[in-house]
Structures are given as C-alpha cells and as structure tokens.
What does this fold into?
Amino acid sequence: MGIVPAGTPCWTDLATPDLADARRFYPELFGWTGRVAPEPEAGGYTDFLRHGQAVAGAGPPAIPEQVPIWSIYVAADDADLVAGRVEEAGGQLVVPPFDVFDRGRMAVLSDPAGATLCVWQPLTMPGGEVFGVPGAMSWTELVTPDPEGAKIFYELVFGWQPDEQPTGSAGHTGWRLGSQIVAGMTTPLGDFPPGAPGYWSVYFGVTDVDATAARAAALGGAILVPPRDTAAGRCTALRDPQGALFNAITPP
It folds into this structure.
C-alpha cells in the first residue's frame, strides 16, 4: 500500500539527459540526498531523499529525443484497471502497464489535450513518503487549454470532481476526491502557443521562495516567473540547467 490513497498524486520524477548534473543541482537547491537504484537496468535512477524519506526521483529519458521533464504519478490500487478507462474517456494510453522491478506497476497516459501523467500501483515502493513540507512535493496542477474536456476525462479515469475556485482564485479549479482537494487545474497564460498540448506541473515546498529562486539561478537554472504572491501562496516558476520546468511555493 502507498502512503496516499488511490487517486491521489503520490510521486514525481525527472527524466533528464544529464542525470549527474541533476544529482548536483537539486540536492544543492533543496537539501536532498540521493539514493541510486542498484539494478543496472535502472540506468542510475535516483531517489531523492529529504531527511531519509523519499520525495522525488530522477532518471534517464525513456527515448533519446525526450525533452527534460518532471512527471506526475497518481496512485492506483490497480494500474491495469485505470489504464483500461483511458481511451474510453477520450485519452491515449502512451505506455501500457508494466512492472518496475519489485517496486510497483505503472502506466503512462495522456488526456484529450495531450497532458501526460503516470499511474503508479505501489508494491515495495509506495511513492513519496512525505508531502506538503519544505523540500517535498506540495502541489500538482494541470495547465490545459481544454478544461471542459479535462473535467470529463479525469472524472472517468480517477473519479475526480471539479471544485471551482477552491482558493478563491479566478480561473483555477480544484480536483476533489471525496472530501479532499488532491490537485488543481488552470488555463494557460495568454502567450501559450496555439495547438500546444496541456501539461502537468509540480510544486515543491520551500521556506523562502525568493531565496530559492535566486539559488536556482546561481546554480545554473533560470527564473521563468519571478516570485509572486497568489491565493495559494508565494510561488515562482523555475527551469533547471537542462530545461526541465518546476515550481517552488510557500503556502500563506
């Protein structure tokens, strides 16, 4: 069993062509330590730990032309069952369910607007072991040009219900699973390229957003959106040295 209930984001990992530099950049930024998978077939896949607890991972890209990207994983009791709903709901099954050693079973899917995310059925590896604290995944959000299509898709696949403006912020929707808001959704900014696919974004908690942004730039990354106050907290959008996008947030 995982740490979080089925239908809840439970893990995030980075696919990057320069795993060695990711092992440098993120520990220096967030204070993480790394634990490399022992299996040669894992390609050096690394769990990032916060005080000994797993919070994120990083590994080589699945295909050489894959752009560096952080991916979101949603916990499932049965990855095959979830995967079976995807095409009926209007999405695509990008990678059918497969076993990841003895750690778990996963699949990769995309929603009708092209946003990809993963399903994780935990076995020996539950996913993240701590959430919502500095240095750990604190929020995930879908950025999509097709929010109405997303509402249909994610309800059919994960049982999520849209909760309009959960933080009082116009244009934002919360994804509710039972009594809990488990993720968010927003529409793209005005400069979003026409026809570009939607995407899932990850937010890591920090104690000082401004200092984190400055530190990321000093370590070779870039500040895409300077620190700003929002209804959800003070946040910034960043890019790592290889081009992967991520966010840092301090809740209000």
